[in-house]
Structure formats: structure tokens, C-alpha cells
């Protein structure tokens, strides 16, 4: 099929945010525009410790192509990332490092717990394994599976995009958000 044969009805465009349209202008709320921009340009920081990391690598590859969702720029610096993907078993000795990485990320920041181990400790109910990363940092989205398929990881990213898109620009300054961080002893 050539480009000339593609009809306008075959192309799926992003939905226009609610607002006012006219000849040569479009007006909407600032929260809507900022949310749309943030949701479609999340920079992931992969914190992979085991098999879930391998599934994430498949998610980054050409077959699943996470770049379609605006997350193609991997950041291995917490200061340049806004989406932390924790994948795999987290030992209790590693918890302070995970927390330090989270604290080094600038606001706004979001966290996805990928797989059973990051979400709940998985099959490793032992003294040395952290039974869920939500014991040390707040989590926005949980992706189930052991290990989760790349489709599930993409679904988790899309769920986070919905959260980001609908989040108020002022949420990070709200008393509720500050109380959540205070419950984790994060300043």
C-alpha cells in the first residue's frame, strides 16, 4: 500500500483535549496540555536485578518498541529520568540504594513495580528479600507476572501514562502528596 492509498480514516490520531477551537487557534487548560506532554515523554530509568530486566529488554526491542509510547530515551542517571522501573528481586541490603536512586530523581517522578518480586517479594519469602518495594518508596503502577510478558510491561506504561495525563500540575505541592512522602520519611 503506497502513501497515496492511505485514507485519513485509516490513521488513528490522538484525541484532542477538551477546549475551544477556532480558525487558527486552540485553547484548553494548562493541566491538560502539561499532562499530555508529560505522559508522552516519560524517560525511564531501568532498575533491573533479574529476569524481569530481560523481559524489559524485549520491550525495548523492535518487535514491541516502547518508543511508540514516547519512552525510547533510556536514562541511566536518576537526575534525568522521571519513570523508575524496578524489575526483579530486591534484597534488603539493596533497599537503601533503591531509595537513594528514587530520592535523586527530580519531581515529578513515577514508579512502576515490574513483576512479582518487585511487587511482593515473589516466591522468595526469605529474611534477605524485600517483600515489595512499596516498603521503601511509593509505587504508582504494579505489573503482575513472573516474569511479566513485554505486553504486560507496555500495559503498565500505558496505565502510568493515564495517571500522568490526568494528574494536576499542583498535585506535587498538595498536603496529601507531602503526607505520602512523609510516611516514607522522604523530604
Could you explain the architecture of this structure?
Helix content is 33%, strand content 13%. Strand 1 (20-22) and strand 2 (25-27) form a beta hairpin. The strands form two sheets. A four-stranded parallel beta sheet has the order 3-4-5-6. The protein has a two-stranded antiparallel ribbon with strand order 1-2. The N and C termini lie far apart (56 Å). It has a single domain (31-183), classed as Rossmann fold (3-Layer(aba) Sandwich), CATH 3.40.50. Helix 1 (30-39) packs antiparallel against helix 5. With 187 residues, it is an alpha/beta fold.
Mean pLDDT: 89
In oligomeric terms, what are we looking at?
single chain
Total individual domains = 1
Q: Based on DSSP secondary structure assignment, what is the total number of beta strands? A: 6
Spatial order of the strands forming the largest sheet: 3-4-5-6
What is the rounded Rg?
A: 19 Å
CATH architecture: 3-Layer(aba) Sandwich
Strand content: 5-15%
**pLDDT below 50 for ≥5 consecutive residues: which ranges?**
none
The level 1 CATH classification is: Alpha Beta
Major sheet characteristics:
4 strands, parallel
- Categorize the overall geometry: globular
Number of helices: 6
Beginning-to-end CA distance, first to last residue = 56 Å
Share of helix, binned:
25-40%
Helix-strand makeup class: alpha/beta
User: At the third CATH level, what is the topology name?
Assistant: Rossmann fold
Could you state the order of secondary-structure elements as H and E?
A: EEHEHEHEHEHH
Amino acid at each position: 500500500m503506497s502513501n497515496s492509498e492511505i485514507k485519513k480514516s485509516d490513521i488513528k490520531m490522538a484525541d484532542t483535549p477538551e477546549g475551544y477551537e477556532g480558525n487558527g487557534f486552540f485553547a484548553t487548560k494548562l493541566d491538560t496540555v502539561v499532562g499530555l506532554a508529560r505522559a508522552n515523554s516519560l524517560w525511564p530509568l531501568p532498575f533491573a536485578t533479574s529476569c524481569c530486566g530481560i523481559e524489559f529488554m524485549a520491550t525495548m526491542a523492535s518487535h514491541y518498541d516502547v518508543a511508540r509510547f514516547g519512552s525510547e530515551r533510556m536514562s541511566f542517571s536518576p537526575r534525568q529520568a522521571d519513570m523508575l522501573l524496578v524489575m526483579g528481586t530486591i534484597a534488603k541490603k539493596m533497599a537503601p540504594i533503591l531509595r537513594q536512586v528514587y530520592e535523586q530523581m527530580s519531581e515529578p517522578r513515577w514508579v512502576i513495580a515490574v513483576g512479582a518480586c518487585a511487587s511482593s517479594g515473589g516466591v522468595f519469602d526469605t529474611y534477605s528479600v524485600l517483600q515489595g518495594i512499596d516498603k521503601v518508596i511509593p509505587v504508582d503502577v504494579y505489573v503482575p507476572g513472573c516474569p511479566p510478558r513485554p505486553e504486560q510491561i507496555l500495559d503498565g506504561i500505558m496505565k502510568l501514562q493515564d495517571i500522568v495525563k490526568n494528574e494536576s500540575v499542583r498535585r506535587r505541592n498538595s498536603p496529601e502528596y507531602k503526607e505520602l512522602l512523609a510516611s516514607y520519611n522522604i523530604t
